[in-house]
Design a protein that fits this description.
Length: 228
């Protein structure tokens, strides 16, 4: 019957850089007959920490330029890790004081912008519909089916490119279905359906996300394959 779906989405952990340091000072602007000046008056000179050893310790030095933000988006779209993105940015600008956390935050912000306040599932459905509406030449159109569980959550999604359907109609004799894991952040099984052609080659037919490898999900998959 397969394993039960578990939501592995993580919550972001937050912290603070505050150390409870008692050091206090006032910066005062003084205007008199001699002119204007600024004066620093220290109330408590005691620190409970040492000085920063590198500018990267200060968040003000972590600000990304617009060019850096655009480059991060491009590299993130290419599925590069924050570590690899950071190495590339430092090669472009050796004076940059970015950290891996800065890159991770920027990648997260870029993903939120891309989703436009939608959940990943909603964004996927929107993308499928946009392909079908905007593609007049049928180059990127998809056929898809989905199923909701008792709590109205999508637990099954099967999508097929129109060109794959054409190949399936020409070579319907041998089909292979294989489920893989670790393909997404939610650890949902992904069923990959391929076909064989007479020249001993293969072609992709479609993909199906399933909450678990259950009989009912495979039943839906076979049913929708037969409708192609």
């Amino acid at each position: 019957m397969g394993q039960k779906y578990k939501d592995l989405a993580t919550r972001r952990t937050t912290g603070t850089r505050m150390t409870g340091c008692k050091f206090t000072c006032d910066i005062i602007r003084i205007i008199n007959k001699d002119g204007e000046r600024w004066e620093v008056r220290v109330s408590d000179p005691v620190h409970n920490h040492g000085p920063d050893l590198h500018p990267s310790a200060q968040p003000a030095y972590h600000k990304r330029s617009e060019a850096a933000r655009k480059l991060i988006k491009v590299l993130q779209a290419a599925n590069l890790s924050p570590k690899d993105i950071l190495n590339i940015l430092i090669k472009h600008d050796p004076e940059a004081n970015y950290t891996r956390v800065d890159i991770s935050n920027e990648v997260t912000r870029a993903r939120h912008e891309e989703l436009d306040r939608l959940t990943p599932t909603q964004a996927l459905f929107v993308a499928l519909e946009v392909y079908n509406i905007e593609d007049e030449n049928l180059e990127n159109r998809y056929i898809y089916w989905y199923h909701r569980d008792d709590e109205e959550r999508v637990d099954y999604l099967f999508f097929v490119h129109l060109k794959s359907r054409e190949l399936l109609c020409k070579h319907p004799d041998v089909l292979l279905i294989d489920s893989t894991y670790s393909t997404n952040r939610y650890n949902i099984p992904l069923a990959h359906i391929t076909g064989r052609i007479s020249q001993n080659g293969s072609f992709d037919i479609g993909y199906a996300f399933m909450a678990a490898e259950r009989t009912e999900h495979y039943g839906l998959l076979i049913q929708h394959l037969s409708q192609l």
